Amino acid sequence: MDLNLLRIFIAVYETRSLTEAANRLFLTQPAVSQALGRLRRSLDDSLFERSGRGMAPTPLAHSVYPELHESLLAIDRTLDAVHGFDPESSGHHFRIAMSELGEVGYFPALYSAVCDTAPNVTVEVVPIDMSQLSAWLSHGTIDLAISPMLPKGNFDQRLLKTENYVALMNQNNGLATGELTVAQLLDAERAIVAGDSGAPNLRAAFTRVGGGWEGAVTVHRFSSLPPLLSVCESLLAIVPESIADGWSTTWPLKWRPLPFDLPPAEISLLRRTTLQHTSALDWLHRTVLRALSGDPGEFSAIGASPQPEP
């Protein structure tokens, strides 16, 4: 059977769309439809049915996809090995999705490791959007993602690190010394970050101990917190411990452990499932894993440094 037909089947299965499959494969939609018709006749099955959510796979399509995907992946890796991916000479362009915190805290070490051995490649950071992440990885819109939340789908994921949350505050805040109690935490004025991926777990923890998650101040960027807490002594914020460690070295801030149990955030590395340029992707994946595994992150760089006193 023509391998190109199988590639089209994989693309339609993963995107659930003839248009998206055509875009991924740099084909026209009529060409994809024609190829899918040939494949349907060969397998004597419709393979996909139109539905409200796009092209819904048939039971046969579901059953053959895993083996076809793995077989094509093996073939592509073999062909890639013939041509090879040479980091020293390649001008490949990579796209990696991550949050604001990831871009400031993890990207410097990541990019340093990449350019050490691949000086001509280019890397683009894509602001992470959890509502789109599954589609991005499935369609090949991005190569990798660094995320504290796992999207729906069967993606290769590697745990990079776990993060405990702590309470961060001005060093002159009355809660900055001694053991923080639940009552004190619930009564404190809090600054929260809209869209924080850890908010669902934090909200559940506060509800469990009889409090609400609403804050006195809501900001939209983590980088707003250091200067805000530095001038507002009554505020505190709940942030990952590595971030609190970084900020407390360059800002007049201190942190205290939370007075209740909270599952740590798990930061994972995810890779796309599409088959193109697999040897380049394998190299990038290995490089990022080595660079970030055990790296605490450079979170002290978030936000402008405080001005020295005259």
Q: Please, could you describe this protein's structure?
A:
This is DNA-binding transcriptional LysR family regulator. Keywords: DNA-binding, Transcription, Transcription regulation. It comes from Brevibacterium marinum. Pfam families: HTH_1, LysR_substrate. InterPro entries: LysR-type_TF, LysR_HTH_N, LysR_subst-bd, WH-like_DNA-bd_sf, WH_DNA-bd_sf. There is one protein chain. The protein is α/β, with parallel strands linked by helices and 310 residues long. It folds into three domains: 3-83, Winged helix-like DNA-binding domain superfamily/Winged helix DNA-binding domain (Arc Repressor Mutant, subunit A); 93-160 and 266-301, D-Maltodextrin-Binding Protein, domain 2 (3-Layer(aba) Sandwich); 165-263, 3-Layer(aba) Sandwich (D-Maltodextrin-Binding Protein, domain 2). It contains twelve helices and twelve strands. The protein has helices at residues 3-15, 18-25, 29-43, 59-83, 100-105, 107-117, 130-139, 182-187, 199-208, 225-231, 241-250, 278-292; strands spanning 48-51, 54-57, 93-98, 122-127, 144-147, 157-163, 165-170, 189-193, 217-219, 235-240, 253-257, 265-271. The strands form three sheets. Strands 4-3-5-12-6 form a five-stranded mixed sheet. A five-stranded mixed sheet has the order 9-8-10-7-11. It has a two-stranded antiparallel ribbon with strand order 1-2. Strand 1 (48-51) and strand 2 (54-57) form a beta hairpin. Helix 2 crosses helix 3 (29-43). The longest helix has 25 residues, at 59-83.
